[in-house]
Amino acid sequence: MLIVMRDHASQAEIDHVVEHLHEAGAEAHLSQGEVKTVIGVIGDRELIYQLEMDGFPGVTEVIRVLKPYKLISREFQAEDTVVRVKGAVIGGGAFGMIAGPCSVESEAQMLEVAQAVKQAGGTMLRGGAFKPRTSPYAFQGMGLEGLKLLRAAGDSVELPVVTEVLDVRDAETVAEWADVLQVGARNMQNFMLLEELGRMERPVLLKRGLSATIEEVLSSAEYILKGGNRDVILCERGIRTFETYTRNTLDLAAVAALRQLTHLPVIADPSHATGRRELVEPMCRAAIAAGADGLMVEVHPDPQHARCDGPQSLDVPAFTKLMECLRPLVVLEGKRL
Amino acid sequence: MLIVMRDHASQAEIDHVVEHLHEAGAEAHLSQGEVKTVIGVIGDRELIYQLEMDGFPGVTEVIRVLKPYKLISREFQAEDTVVRVKGAVIGGGAFGMIAGPCSVESEAQMLEVAQAVKQAGGTMLRGGAFKPRTSPYAFQGMGLEGLKLLRAAGDSVELPVVTEVLDVRDAETVAEWADVLQVGARNMQNFMLLEELGRMERPVLLKRGLSATIEEVLSSAEYILKGGNRDVILCERGIRTFETYTRNTLDLAAVAALRQLTHLPVIADPSHATGRRELVEPMCRAAIAAGADGLMVEVHPDPQHARCDGPQSLDVPAFTKLMECLRPLVVLEGKRL
Amino acid sequence: MLIVMRDHASQAEIDHVVEHLHEAGAEAHLSQGEVKTVIGVIGDRELIYQLEMDGFPGVTEVIRVLKPYKLISREFQAEDTVVRVKGAVIGGGAFGMIAGPCSVESEAQMLEVAQAVKQAGGTMLRGGAFKPRTSPYAFQGMGLEGLKLLRAAGDSVELPVVTEVLDVRDAETVAEWADVLQVGARNMQNFMLLEELGRMERPVLLKRGLSATIEEVLSSAEYILKGGNRDVILCERGIRTFETYTRNTLDLAAVAALRQLTHLPVIADPSHATGRRELVEPMCRAAIAAGADGLMVEVHPDPQHARCDGPQSLDVPAFTKLMECLRPLVVLEGKRL
Amino acid sequence: MLIVMRDHASQAEIDHVVEHLHEAGAEAHLSQGEVKTVIGVIGDRELIYQLEMDGFPGVTEVIRVLKPYKLISREFQAEDTVVRVKGAVIGGGAFGMIAGPCSVESEAQMLEVAQAVKQAGGTMLRGGAFKPRTSPYAFQGMGLEGLKLLRAAGDSVELPVVTEVLDVRDAETVAEWADVLQVGARNMQNFMLLEELGRMERPVLLKRGLSATIEEVLSSAEYILKGGNRDVILCERGIRTFETYTRNTLDLAAVAALRQLTHLPVIADPSHATGRRELVEPMCRAAIAAGADGLMVEVHPDPQHARCDGPQSLDVPAFTKLMECLRPLVVLEGKRL
């Protein structure tokens, strides 16, 4: 931690800060120029993280050099975390392709999609049973019944299933029916939910919040690992910017940066990020080339009648074609699909 | 709803869309130019809101003219909602001043602050017992014990108390001890929590999310009103932008716009928005002049030792001075404090 | 400047950095912990500003503590700069009200507006002759002819006139006809134009760029002052964010912050910022309460036929009413209008 | 254009709008529901683009369906524009690799870089002679002398050279010495400069502004084509968002979208976008996979002593390695490098 004093801070102010640091058990290193004084603070992570020096008289700025996370960092664990769920593997060179509809709508829809995903080479089946919707008047998902249809569809083709947990009170139930628990963008900083999932034994797919920084994504993942659950997959799904042509802005530099900063597998979701079917393929390709360990893509047997996110869903032939076009790229990246 | 077809869409595509609309029970009005065809859709809100036409062949854009909310709108209720909690009133010309520390830290701290807030003319006491923190290593609040200290401090000076509910499972408990339940920015789209609070009888203070649009704030409030609870106070607390000088960007046009769009009281929180003590006073003034029905301000007896948000907290003399300086402005705006 | 070395940087890397600093004539102060080494750099502004240390081996981050400006800062000049132009004054307690149409369209329009602005108590007349338009197919302004109409209208009521310089080659011509030269948001970092205006003797009204930080606004103003021209008025006119309800997000904390950081007068332009007529009045009020030294407002005798920016323009009665409603607030703020 | 009337707009208001449209020579198609009336407007582009209906009584919103550009669109020209400059080709399947230092600093530096770029297979040489710098105290480039060094270096290895035009008054001079004229991000809406370049015969490399939408990039390119110059290369170089880990956010969906919307070649600049050397390679790969027609990369023989942008520059061995790693990807995309 660096404490920058205001120009011409008085000696008394500087001494006051230094004293407080010593009392708290930290070391203070002064760098004093004619105008500026900067105090370097050395000590252990927890201690330093809890120091709140911003309010001290004479202090202009506090710059935190230590990161707010530890367990998820490459420094803590150099080799890639590999998440295994039933037959499927993501991370450490194994490329995961998660596909399925935005919402579970019916048994027929799910069975048809499951078949298509399996045949085209997808490795996990997704489908939303509890849907977070901006408006209380929009379709909110089929709930438990949807979970069961998802499970049955996954079983029918032997694919593990991924679905979102919206409510911390439903975590146990969702874990009964699903193999991977998804935390949606709106819940990325629902710390209660993160802690609950940290105590469970199901892999977690954590989506980046709409306005979450890379550091905040990592800190949220840290909540889960701190609870004991080490199987976390991070997912970049677009951030909110001024651009309106795409629904969100897919931040692929975040994928590359996360791959460098953490050992956890990192995937991308071009369907939600772009909100436009015609951009799904190029963004899937780009994500692979950026180093992603997997993808999440919306597929619907009949996108024009989808109950949500129709404009970004691929139909079955389009998904099959997508898989064919992505394979050589995955291979070129030295990964297995 | 307006459906914009792509240039030179085929007659078959247009017919297909129109047919689907008729089947769904909506009316379709065509506006056909040489190049562009636009279809106006008429029908009731719920019906139209659930139509998902974006995926249809030939459709370029779907523009929703109907809003995703209803109960909270000025069209639905023209006169201001007035929220009354014990002696305190916000809305309809009554100006509310909510003040207190970011976190409850000790009995002495709370009693001292409560006294100061009361004496200076504050109308409610705030204090965080459950704190949402980016890092799992940061101070997370005193929990239930903090709630009790907050309650006791409020009672000691006869001020109603406001505190954040972080976990839907704690809602009942928090409601036992607090008078107003705050939903923090990170939970603005935690729809489960909103629904739970909608079924309760405690007033709710709903903070705008860091990247929430005005329409999304209103939609979240609609979740609460839809459940039956009509006592909702909206709070602008800064949005996340590229600017780093201030912690967030206080969007006062949103305060003015919300006042026009909804009958609910709207307040502002300059402390969190700016993250800088020296900007709290001018932003309080600006918020009042923009038409805010109240303010939320951080006060701490000893800001430099605050366990969170020290740099933006006012000490007691500064808060007292602030209240004096704001009073004439509130009066000029035709409100009562 | 602070140089943060990566964890466990080698002594050779640290020595290399320190040597380079010494060679360049700067002092290096080391703060070495077990893990982190931070090097504080002391020296004069120009020297340090030109040091590019980010590329050195072992360097993780370079934090610039010195600001990229000097002449415009409160440290350099504590008292407010007062800009005087003909009878009009802005700054140092004098409140300026600049009003007029977005574009000059005709002699009749300008004379009518000028009269209205004068009668209602406006202090300067604005009108665009050279218009920056996103599309090459949109109306681009009347050019020199517009300048002359603006001049004549201003003279007819003895108000100084403000207009935008779009092209550095036109600066002299515009200066012949106008009293204050406006630099638009899109040109805030057109450094050639800034330098040219810095060499002239006309006051400059510098608008904040759509995505310019507060520090960048100040740095751009520094370009003008560095050239010798000290009469610069800064104008907050909204930044680009994800919010689409308003055209831009008026950042009033920037107004308050700029007032603290610089001695230059700071005004706000609620018309362009909000793009909505019904938000102009509350945002004018809020800007005054935030400490603005003046306002810029669009007025048009017939907004519905305005050739640009109709939806945000006030008509003459609305402007007259606005002035009446703002006056008591300006007085309360201790300023003169 | 669609004109949305406010709820229950009066018949008089509707008639007024329709009349005005007829007078202006446009057709009006009404879509009238019980609550909402929407008016579709049909007419030619120029006419409609100049209609300003937002200010009319009863009008809530004006939605422009026609785009503000034409010549640059795929509808206007389906096949790719191929830009040829001396031996180099970009577009239509030819992949361009533009490389070189941020700033021209010396003859030796330029000759060394030119050799390296040529040997590694780069197709154009870049180097800044006129540098736009936020602070007036930062290094502003070598100017004309720099241009000559760039030219000589390019000639020594037979590579065409690219450099930025900062000042419209310098356009002729820069065109004398350089083969491609770059418009920097800060000047993307310097319409005077765009018009000037539109009248010249040198290819233009137009960088996206920091907060420019895709539509604005296209509109700026339209300015150049409208002047007669059809050789324009678009460049995505990162937009400004809340994320601070990377300097800007590289928006690769914009690359894919631009490729669909326009026939002009589209390249990406990962060096400026990320500001971090370790992200250059993955982002180059991602850009290629997103469909980019080329790349622009910073290379410096001695990045740690670069006078600007050191932290993102590659040294010669790193650039050589980069080229080797990108080649198979370019081939997989069906392009020639």
Structure description:
- Four copies of one chain form a homotetramer.
- In chain A, strand 8, helix 4 and strand 9 (161-164) form a beta-alpha-beta unit.
- In chain A, helix 3 runs parallel beside helix 4, helix 3 (107-120) packs parallel to helix 11 (316-332) and helix 6 packs across helix 7 (214-226).
- Chain A is 36% helix and 18% strand.
- Chain A has an eight-stranded parallel β-barrel, surrounded by seven helices. A four-stranded antiparallel sheet of chain A has the order 2-3-1-4, with helices on one face. A two-stranded antiparallel ribbon of chain A has the order 5-6.
- Chain A has eleven helices and 14 strands.
- The first copy, chain A, has two domains: 2-63, Phospho-2-dehydro-3-deoxyheptonate aldolase, domain 1 (Alpha-Beta Plaits, 2-Layer Sandwich), CATH 3.30.70.1140; 83-332, TIM Barrel (Alpha-Beta Barrel), CATH 3.20.20.
- The first copy, chain A, has 337 residues and is of the alpha/beta class.
- Chain A has helices at 11-24, 45-50, 107-120, 144-157, 171-177, 191-198, 214-226, 252-261, 270-274, 277-289, 316-332; strands at residues 2-5, 27-32, 37-42, 59-63, 83-85, 88-90, 96-100, 124-126, 161-164, 180-183, 204-207, 232-236, 266-268, 294-298.
- The radius of gyration of chain A is 23 Å and the shape is elongated.
- In chain A, 60% of the residues are buried.
- The model of chain A has no long low-confidence stretch (mean pLDDT 92).
